[in-house]
Amino acid sequence: MTSDLSRRHLLQLMGLGTGAAALASVAPGLAWAQTKDTVTIAWPTDVPTWDPNQRTFPDGQALFKLIFEQPIMQDPKLNFVPGLFTEWTTSEDGLSLGFKLREGVKFHDGSPLTNRDIRFNWFDRVKESLSGGNKLDAANTWKNIQDIELDGDYAGTFRFGAPITTAVPWLAFMANYVVPEAYIKSVGIEQFRSKPIGTGPYKLAEYQVNSRMVFERNEDYWGEKPAIKTVVVNIIKDPSARAAAMQSGQADLTVNIPVRETERLGKVPGLVSELNPIQRVVLIQLRSDLATADQNLRLALHHAIDKQALSKAFYGGGAVPLSVPAPPGTAGDVPGFVFPYDPEKSKALLAASGYGPGKPATLKMAATNGHFPSDFDIARALVGMWKKVGIEVELETIEYAKYFELNRGGQLPELTLYSWENATGDPEIFTGYLLNPKMPFSPWRGEQPGDQIAKLFVETNTEKRLAGYRELNRFAVEMGATIPLLQSVQTLVRKDNLNYLKFGNGWVLAQTMTWG
What we know:
17 helices; ten-stranded mixed beta sheet; alpha+beta
């Protein structure tokens, strides 16, 4: 497949699109966070590292994309479009991917981007990680890479030992950014993580951990320059504090505050609020051991959940209830399949496993507070629903960054409320990673549905592969390996004359922002 993008669409993607239509000027009395050359964003999480390929960290992507770029990008409708690759072609057997690299691109230190940087990122660093060196989450995806053959300075071919059917989506997804070979080899990986450089539209000018970031426009950027010169990101983990920053005028934009606060702020003169369904899935991750080794208990948990009530109570009915771990309209969705809300069925399943009055099932669940809108409120509502059928759940709050540490260490409790991000929409990057026992992304470690996933990873026939994932999604839910809840919703509040380009996956990119 070879893809191209019109100049107009590319300019929009790189920050020259007008985004939302300009609205009325900010009302008198609402303070400005900065000047028109600056935008100040109240953001819920810091990055875990400035090596963008070290961790698959969804909420860091909008920050990474200021500094770094990817071989393939996505437009606002999530189509794959040229980025640092101007062309790419995949073989029918899934064993190779040819590319042409954009010429004239420079890293922030002035050094040129060449295909040697591509080989460094997707071959040298991957092999180093797989051999026990600096660990990269991307290495799990590219473990079957055999070589990247170079043709001059600006073309080459990826060679795989086994089919990588999602090579194109991954080159546009998390942990797949271009970082500079010469700079890293010169200063070392730790210095790079302290003072990162990329090819992106902004440079990192200031960084205070868990506090503040300042980005300055890259005046030598290869594409059209962003309209806004300085981007200030204040890390404010508490959603109420983010809402207060907007109301006081200390911030120009924020995301992921509770719906009720979003609606309230939307009535403040000079502010606009948005409730945007995005390509994420709110779900409950389960362990395949401990108390949830019992399939009856897993299914009882699911049947006890009134998803429509959750959507109505916490998202004004705007979050679509899900029966499989795939948003509506994506390739992994299973139209017509509904996992029913049935509390009596829950009680019967519990009784079949020896639970009942006087002997409730007991479990623990972890949830974040402020990572996505109303997360902790949803968790508390779930605890109440389960209590009604005879399941006692102890709820604990965890920091979003702590989730990754606990997951990789096998220390999560039986249940975890989580929002799974997949900007590509490909079902492999939903269920294929969500329930894959060979990947470090899920607490589920059962052989099933892992065996089915392994076969789908190497299926090169697109129709068979997607049909296989639809069948897998239904099977995984019916066996209780996952409990999908809702299509995720992003809440956003902004100054009414701050415009931005809206992406279907919830990316809020400062390089697309303009003051009206």
